[in-house]
Amino acid sequence: MIFIKAFILLLIFIGSLNAGKIIAKKYSNRVQELRDMKNALNMFLTKIKFTYEAVPVSFNEIGNNINGNIGKIFRTASENMKEKSAGDAWEEVIDKTQTSLTNEDKDIIKGLGKLLGKTDLDGQVSEIKLVQNFLTTQIELAEKEKEKNEKLYRTLGGVVGIAIVIILV
Fold it and tell me: I need a labelling partner for 46 at 20 to 30 A (CA). Which of 4, 21, 140, 165 fits?
C-alpha cells in the first residue's frame, strides 16, 4: 500500500513539474516564432526584389523552407490566396493559426497584409522593412520576458508539486 501511495505521489510531482515546463516552453516558442517570421519576411523581401514571383508562389516556397507554425502560416496563406486577396488571406491565417505569438505580435504581422500585393515594389519593400523593425523590437521584449518567466514557471511547477505531495502525505 505504501508503494502505491509513493508511486502516485511521484506521478503527481512529475506531472506538476511537466506542467511548469510546458507553460515555460511557450516563452521559448514565442521567441523562436518571431525569429522565424523575421527570417521568412527577409526571404520574401529578397524574392520580391529579385525574382518578381507572384505573392502566392513566394509564400509557398517560403512556407516549404521554414519549419513549424510560421511555415504553416505561409503555406496556408498561399493556398488561401487562390480564393481571396493576398491581404485578406494573410490576415485570416494569422488569426486562425495556433502560435505562441501574442496579440500584439499578430497585429504587427497583420499590418503587412494591408499593402500585400496592392502597392508597387517600393511600397511593399518599405512595408516589409517596417514590419521587420517592429519584429526586432518584439524579439527583444520576448527574450526579456522569456528570461524572467521561463525559470519562474519551471520552479513554480516544482513547488506546486511538492506542496501537493506534502498536503497528501
Answer: 140
Tens digit of each residue's pLDDT (9 = 90 or more) over 48-94: 888 877 888 888 899 899 888 899 998 998 898 888 887 888 888 88
Q: Which pLDDT band, with edges at 50, 70 and 90, does 163 fall under?
A: very high
Q: Break the chain into its structural domains and give their ranges.
A: 27-168
- 17, 158 Cβ separation under 8 angstroms: yes
Rounded Cα distance, 6 and 25, in Å: 28
The answer to whether the predicted template modeling score (pTM) of the entire model surpasses 0.85 is no
112 and 128 Cβ atoms separated by less than 8 Å: yes
Rounded Cα distance between 7 and 90, Å, is: 49
Helix pair angle (2-50, 68-80), 10° resolution: 50
Are 47 and 59 spatial neighbours (Cβ–Cβ below 8 Å)? no
Q: Which residues contact 135 (CB under 8 A, 6 or more apart)?
A: 34, 37, 38, 41, 105, 108, 109
Q: Is 57 helix (H, G, I), strand (E, B) or coil?
A: helix
Angstrom distance (rounded) from CA 39 to CA 43: 6
DSSP assignment of 102-158, as one string? -HHHHHHHHGGGGTTTTS-HHHHHHHHHHHHHHHHHHHHHHHHHHHHHHHHHHHHHH
